[in-house]
Write a structure and sequence with these properties.
There is one protein chain. The chain has one helix at residues 88-97, and strands at residues 20-25, 34-39, 42-44, 48-50, 53-55, 65-67, 71-73, 76-81, 113-122, 130-147, 160-166, 170-174. It has a single domain (20-51, 62-174), classed as Pnp Oxidase, Chain A. It has 175 residues and is mainly beta. The chain is 6% helix and 42% strand. The strands form 3 sheets. Strands 1, 2, 3, 8, 9, 10, 11 and 12 form an 8-stranded antiparallel β-sheet that branches. It starts with 19 loop residues before the first strand and ends with a strand.
């Protein structure tokens, strides 16, 4: 979808990266509601790397031929401040690990889902609503590591909950 850029905005101006939303829904879990929904303090690892295939040809002295090779994806890490009500990151992790006595729904593969990370901005109207500008989709994502915030009575930081995700594809699209 093409997004019209306001005339007063320079088209080369970078978008701010601190305002985003994450959504992961599992069919048949939680009555079809998203299992991991909300704003996050940080999302890292939106990365894809292609390993080129090098072909050395006899008689070609100027260097090898480079061809496209397999693509690999970095582990994506979701970080957010811990709240007593939002335990959905742990709940999703528990579906795979069996934590808290959670039973898997069907097979473990059935618990994999697409995760969308949307960079958002306020709408021009004064309604307080937001709209997506860019969306990254992690295809067939699965949590592989969960980390709760450090428990330190002397600390003044917000406890940060982390969930590491592996996935099988990355798409980027304009909203």
């Amino acid at each position: 979808m093409v997004i019209a850029i306001p005339k007063e905005q320079d088209q080369s101006t970078p978008l701010p990266t601190f305002n985003f939303h994450v959504d992961a829904s599992l069919p048949g879990v939680n009555s079809g509601k998203p299992v991991c929904l909300g704003a996050f303090a940080e999302v890292s690892g939106l990365e894809a790397t292609m390993e080129p295939k090098v072909i050395k040809v006899g008689g070609r002295n100027y260097g090898p031929i480079q061809r496209a090779g397999p693509v690999s994806f970095a582990t994506v890490v979701l970080r957010r401040g811990v709240s007593e009500k939002a335990r959905d990151l742990w709940a999703w992790w528990a579906l795979f690990s069996g934590g808290d006595g959670a039973a898997t729904v069907g097979s473990v593969a059935a618990n994999r889902t697409n995760v969308t990370v949307s960079m958002i901005r306020p709408k021009k109207s004064d309604t307080g609503e937001r709209e997506a500008v860019l969306t990254w989709t992690l295809e067939n994502a699965m949590p592989v590591k969960f980390k709760a915030g450090d428990l330190n009575a002397r600390g003044t930081e917000v406890a940060i909950e982390k969930l590491h995700l592996v996935h099988e594809g990355l798409k980027v699209e304009r909203a």
